[in-house]
Specification:
- The structure is a homodimer of 349-residue chains.
- The longest helix of chain A has 24 residues, at 256-279.
- Chain A is globular.
- In chain A, α1 runs antiparallel to α9, α3 packs parallel to α9 and α4 (82-94) crosses α8.
- Chain A is of the alpha/beta class and 349 residues long.
- The first copy, chain A, has helices spanning 37-44, 48-51, 60-70, 82-94, 110-117, 160-168, 192-195, 223-233, 243-254, 256-279, 302-311, 335-348; strands at residues 24-25, 77-80, 101-104, 122-125, 144-148, 175-178, 199-204, 217-221, 291-294, 314-315, 317-318, 328-331.
- Helix content of chain A is 37%, strand content 13%.
- In chain A, the strands form three sheets. In chain A, strands 2-8-7-6-5-3-4 form a seven-stranded mixed β-sheet, with helices on both faces. A three-stranded antiparallel β-sheet of chain A has the order 9-12-11, covered by helices on one side.
Amino acid sequence: MSFSDNIRRVTPYTPGEQPQRKVIKLNTNESPYPPSPQVVEAIRAIKASKLRLYPDPDCRELRETLAEEYGLEPEQVFVGVGSDDVLSMCFLTFFAGKKPVLFNDITYSFYEVWADVYRIPFETVPLRDDFSFDPKGFLKENGGIVICNPNAPTSLEAELADIEKVVAENQDSVVLIDEAYVDFGAHTALPLLKKYPNVVIVRTMSKSRALAGLRVGYAFGSKELIKALHDVKFSVNSYTLNMPALVAGVAAAADREYFEETVDRVLVTREKTKEALRSFGFTVPESRTNFLFAKPPEGTSAESLFEKLKEKDIYVRFFKKPRLSDYLRITIGTDAEMEQFIKVLQEIL
Amino acid sequence: MSFSDNIRRVTPYTPGEQPQRKVIKLNTNESPYPPSPQVVEAIRAIKASKLRLYPDPDCRELRETLAEEYGLEPEQVFVGVGSDDVLSMCFLTFFAGKKPVLFNDITYSFYEVWADVYRIPFETVPLRDDFSFDPKGFLKENGGIVICNPNAPTSLEAELADIEKVVAENQDSVVLIDEAYVDFGAHTALPLLKKYPNVVIVRTMSKSRALAGLRVGYAFGSKELIKALHDVKFSVNSYTLNMPALVAGVAAAADREYFEETVDRVLVTREKTKEALRSFGFTVPESRTNFLFAKPPEGTSAESLFEKLKEKDIYVRFFKKPRLSDYLRITIGTDAEMEQFIKVLQEIL
């Protein structure tokens, strides 16, 4: 017997690299644009005398702003330190049963890490061969369901009707819908909230609102589920979002115009980049995210391309995993960055 | 069967009130002084273009600064979203066995909340009648130990020799020492780190470094234990401290002069306030924290005094719990605030 025997042993999630040098960084799905000028102003306006005080543990203003923006009540809104914190809290709160939680075999790889750390049994449901979503695998007994839509790292959107089917036929389970990328042209499951009390939608300000550095994630759900989430959150850490995150989140959520404008720019750049890649012979599925999931042309391995791009100071993401290792995940940067990326790619190919 | 059956039911911790009106706020042990001017400068210097990027998941610079400041190696330092996050991660990481974790019956009330949310068995060890620490209760089989020193809400310091006894006789358990208040004149267990690989010391920048609004906590321990803590942290949320928290934490940790000066001012005010309370007939144990734990004179109930102070816009903390309900916990504010507090108290009595 030693103290080591009581330690929780886990295999942690590996985040994308954060190179300290100046590179073209297309590997962690950040926004290529700065956040709303109102965010910057809100941070500049922080009073030194306020920093000594605890932030609002209820995150009231942020929850009210999000509720207003999305036509909900504040009691239907939960916020956390990025959507990872929100998802982690959801796993801990909603999946406390003994039956396995279901999620796709190819999806955000953090789901199985949370299942592992919280000792939640799980089973994976295969995507179809073309990576499209198949609701059938979710029509069996389970202790909860997680669907990432649009999915990562495939960039593909599931049909909302298929998602509704899963929700409707699993009314004894909480169905978590991870919409981290939904703002980039996909259909939200938000309308399902009105019909089903078992749905929770999780989102982030890290991508479409350019707040990765502030860590602001949020969730929408029925009052009952959001209350349960708050109870668990207040059993883990009363004050999660710090004061700069709260003021930045409010400012970002309220500036719809800037949000829509920058998202639109990303969409335009994405489509241009997709066409360029296809013209080089890449296989590129229709993305509804701020990244492309692209398979290099015959004769070029994704891994070697990943390495060669890195040598040229262009960072994309490569997953050394079954079914994924033929692809690269390429975040959409600015037009200038993507032109440089395409130029370097051309040189390599 | 319903989705409600899979929900984790918990009784959350209740943080002190955060009144929105302007009051004299002596209820959550914040610093009465703003953080170091260098913190304010670091926040002002944040570049808008950096907010869109994820913060450093390894929190390298902050860990290096703390290591340097306390004579440790960066691999012995863990940081989190306030010491609550750090403690929560410690409970999740180190107390994964089946034997009960031990902590005092009167101590930081969050310990039993974390034990509850993570389903960790625990037993409480009574303090002596005078609230002093008795090591004897910790000399039995256990799955881990938590000691808050100085203790909250009693403000009392345990003898370091007694803490060492507990550590030395429990080398098969991780012993967490919560030193949230140690900077206010108490003895740290830091020297024990060199002798015992089973010690973890947890601290916060919320009080002595006036960063409650930023949420920065930290832990020191052996490389083995800190590595285990990082593995679990990276299984929960890769990016916990946001960018403003990281830059503020570095600036606060590095400005030793300001830190010592403001802590000294709090100590002087504490002693003055203690004497004034004693002169009114209060029982006030020797505090080694930034608050006083004070029992009103015969004939005055702590609860009614708490209410009367609140009516006069002075917020202190009252715990409606056995052994605690005779006392008030009074955070040390500025000299002006404490003079006003004493004046109002005099009027009430």
